[in-house]
Amino acid sequence: MRKKDYIFATMIFLIFIIILLRLWQLQILNTEKYKKLAEQNRIRIIKIPAPRGIIYDRNGIPLVENIPSFAVSISPEYAYKVDINILAKILNLSAEEIEKKLSKKYESIYMPIRIKEDLTFKEIAMLEARRSELPGLIIETEIKRHYPFGPATAHLLGYLGKITEEQIKDNLQYKNLPSYFMVGQTGLEKIFDDKLRGTPGEKIVEVDALGRELRLIKESPPVKGEDIYLTIDALLQESAYKSLETLTGAFVAIKPDTGEILALVSSPSFDPNIFVEGVPQHYWNELINNPQNPLLNRVIQGLYAPGSTFKVITALAGLEEGVITPDKVLVNCTGGISFGAWTFGCWKKGGHGPVNLRKALVESCDVYFYELGRILGIKKIHKYATLLGLGSPTGFNSDEKAGLVPDDEWKKNDKKASWFLGDTFNTSIGQGFLKVTPLQMARVMAIIVNEGVKVTPYIIRGNEAKKENLNLNPKNLEIIKKALSAVVNEPEGTASGARSYIIKFGGKTGTVQVISKKLKEKVSYKNIEHHAWFIGFAPTDDPEMAFSLIVEHGGSGGAVAAPVAKNILEGYILKKRQLNVKN
Amino acid sequence: MLKIDRRLISYFDWITFAIVFFICILGILTLYSATRPPLDEGEQPPFYVKQLIWLAIATLTLIAFVTFDYIKLKNFWLIFYIIGILLLIIVLFTGKTAMGAKRWINLGFFSFQPSEVFKIIFIISISAFLEDKQSPLSIKDTLKALLIFGIIPFSLIIKQPDLGTAVLLFAITFIMIIYKGLPVRLLILLLFIFIISIFFLWEILWEGLKEYQKNRLIAFIDPSIDPKGIGYNIMQSVITVGSGGLFGKGFLEGTQGPLKFLPERHTDFIFPIFAEEWGFIGCFILLTLYFTLFIRCWKTSIIAKDEFGKLLSIGFTSIFVLYFFINIGMTLGIMPVVGIPLPFMSYGGTTLVANFIGIALVINVRMRRFELFYP
């Protein structure tokens, strides 16, 4: 035998040894590691979303429902193998769209990539038929949120969206949820997300490499989220939205004795049902580029001068301080008063003649309140305005704006200027620096009709309302209430045009000048129209609700806001009667 | 030719045949396990049945190839070789494309891989060519051999593209030349040229590779670069082998293959399926079978009565050993993934028949070692 024959044999032997050593390493030294990996290969943990809790109105009408829907996903390890063209054809999507989704960074090798949601039965059938060509295909059943009242409840309930990075940081519970899980992004859906979400179930299944489920190993069912019962009256809410739908504005009604919020509407609104699928870009752009800002909840975040609705507070201050009596004629209105170089006009150019408190409120005489303001001084006006809750949030919601009640100190600190009597005049009739939210004004109304008890508005039924007695003289409140009833129900009242034969309601109109009259003559765009206010209560005898309503750039309170309020109330009453008849 | 000397039957190498046959049976069992459907799909062709039929065909072929004296092949080597090269050219023009490569010729009733047929022709030809050359080889003969058996088939096969087979055949040409004998100086010079040319040709070679071939090489160096793409095969293969442990999960108890985590589980990646179910002990036994087989083939080259027989045996031994090492090496993640089947175990008819012809010729050499040259 030759030497090289041995070299040859040695080579064979070496190969034998090398392979054996490698097998030793894999099968003996690291067997546990690979056993675990092999196990993970064939086991998939599927999170099953729990049905979210239902949100009901005060009468048990669901404001949001759960509807089953189907979605198609692809197992990530098959992302590069799937026939994109077949998928695109069946799902009516562009190939690029699908490619983009598939090429995204995967969270985990076992977390399916969502391709399309809300499949039709036809789509499901076509996918099933071509399953062998679509490796990694997973069809999932899920529950979709549906808002039967659509835009009418959008600001109230908010909407759902996929979990964002920040939310995961803020709420560690979200970490265990797959990214396509929907959680509350705004409104009650967000505030009560923990309660509504429930506990997701878990399914451990054996799968093959195509992601097909072969065997169920373990299953823990999801636990449905808790239901929430609101103080909202769906019928009033809907009626309010319908009346405001074409306008820009807000309506909020509260039960005066308890603080329960009966309706909360901000217009324009948006359709939360579109958000359920993840907002389409064009819809989102439309919303954020809309100058009317549909995403703003005007009830708690809209800041406006209260206009003449503030006269209710000036009047109350006058009565409480004892500087006026109901029948005392304080001024003889000739259409305005002069103060130094300035003239402060009344809205009625011809003047109201001799004016007492009742007439001042019913006909909204500015001159009367200028004089009353002068007598009271800004400190007193500030005192009563803040006592009635202006200048600070009502405590309903953390997103609320505080508003502003000015006084001399504020002006000195903030504007670096001294307070003038003219400022007091402006404040007395609700103009100038004052800023309020519609919710604050609704509560002012509630305090007036509820014997001076200040309630904190709330929306979840069963909550204990915070109440505070302001120790106002019931007689004074009654005087104001009667006058406010006359505003609507007597011919000379500023809201007499809105008088209703179906429901007797009272209130105060307000018209907020957006720019000065001089300027107004020069420009004539729609958005220099006045803001129209109406704060009121109904029915007049034993008020069950106090409300406030604003129509931005609507015109005058009497001509625009009061009739809208009438529409809302009548629409509500009629609908209620209709349902009662049916029942 | 049909007149069989009784002596030949008693000289027939039953042990080699038994080992090969046993490995084939193990292969078919593994094939059955690997392709058993996890769901009642009924879509899987019964690979193991097909392979059983091929085993029968291969056995008959083996018998046919031991009946005549291998020495007669020597005279026809040039004709064989030309036919082989023609087949390789034909496949480039008319070949059936599968998985991006033209490797098959379709004859209607079945398709076959010319490169498998060529392997046999190649060993016979190179052995015949080298037999009557003086040892050590002259520079002229060395270059001739390198050109005829190295460069020409390499360029044709790499075009299919079948990088694995091309490189393998080139390597075998080298082994055969070295085995035949080279002056030490020439050997050193060749190695030197080889290293230098790799150095210079690397970029050209690299650019010449298809994208997937490059990716395979990259993935071999670091499978974690693309665990869901090219590296997937390697990682899944290693997981499959490793999860077998010492005793294995047991026959038909493996999960990686039937659940289709392992691609190509019935062809190139059949070994991991075996390793998962039979464990380290099973692998040790299987490796020992192969080792014994290779050593017996090698021994044949030593005891062969003539130079042609020696070269023939060492040629086939080399081809088996290299296929075996590269296939198992790639499934264990110590070799790059090239499409090389495991001899006698991987699914595939042409390959099985070709390998049986190889074994038949080695047995042929062994059983005729006592025959006289001039009876």
UniProtKB/TrEMBL annotation, chain A:
Gene3D superfamilies: DD-peptidase/beta-lactamase superfamily, Penicillin-binding protein 2a (Domain 2), Penicillin-binding protein 2a, domain 3
Keywords: Carboxypeptidase, Cell inner membrane, Cell membrane, Cell shape, Cell wall biogenesis/degradation, Hydrolase, Membrane, Peptidoglycan synthesis, Protease, Transmembrane, Transmembrane helix
Subcellular location: Cell membrane; Membrane
Alphabetical list of Pfam families matching this protein: PBP_dimer, Transpeptidase
GO molecular function, one term: peptidoglycan L,D-transpeptidase activity
Domain Penicillin-binding protein dimerisation residue range list: 47-215
UniProt GO cellular component terms: plasma membrane
Any one GO BP annotation for this protein: cell wall organization
Annotated protein name in UniProt: Penicillin-binding protein 2
Organism: Thermodesulfovibrio obliviosus
Top-level taxonomy: Bacteria, Pseudomonadati, Nitrospirota, Thermodesulfovibrionia, Thermodesulfovibrionales
From TrEMBL, chain B:
Pfam families reported for this sequence: FTSW_RODA_SPOVE
Domain of life: Bacteria
Annotated transmembrane regions: 12-32, 52-71, 78-95, 107-130, 142-158, 186-206, 278-299, 311-338, 344-365
Entry's Gene Ontology BP terms: cell division; cell wall organization; peptidoglycan biosynthetic process; regulation of cell shape
Catalytic activity reported: [GlcNAc-(1->4)-Mur2Ac(oyl-L-Ala-gamma-D-Glu-L-Lys-D-Ala-D-Ala)](n)-di-trans,octa-cis-undecaprenyl diphosphate + beta-D-GlcNAc-(1->4)-Mur2Ac(oyl-L-Ala-gamma-D-Glu-L-Lys-D-Ala-D-Ala)-di-trans,octa-cis-undecaprenyl diphosphate = [GlcNAc-(1->4)-Mur2Ac(oyl-L-Ala-gamma-D-Glu-L-Lys-D-Ala-D-Ala)](n+1)-di-trans,octa-cis-undecaprenyl diphosphate + di-trans,octa-cis-undecaprenyl diphosphate + H(+)
Aminoacyl-tRNA synthetase in keyword set: no
GO molecular function, one term: peptidoglycan glycosyltransferase activity
Topology in membrane: Multi-pass membrane protein
EC number assigned by the record: 2.4.99.28
Cellular localisation: Cell membrane; Membrane
Coiled-coil residues: none
Pathway of action: Cell wall biogenesis; peptidoglycan biosynthesis
Protein keywords: Cell membrane, Cell shape, Cell wall biogenesis/degradation, Glycosyltransferase, Membrane, Peptidoglycan synthesis, Transferase, Transmembrane, Transmembrane helix
Enzyme class at the top of the EC tree: transferase
NCBIfam families linked to this entry: rodA_shape (TIGR02210)
Free-text function comment from the UniProt entry: Peptidoglycan polymerase that is essential for cell wall elongation.
Descriptive protein name: Peptidoglycan glycosyltransferase RodA
Name of the encoding gene: rodA
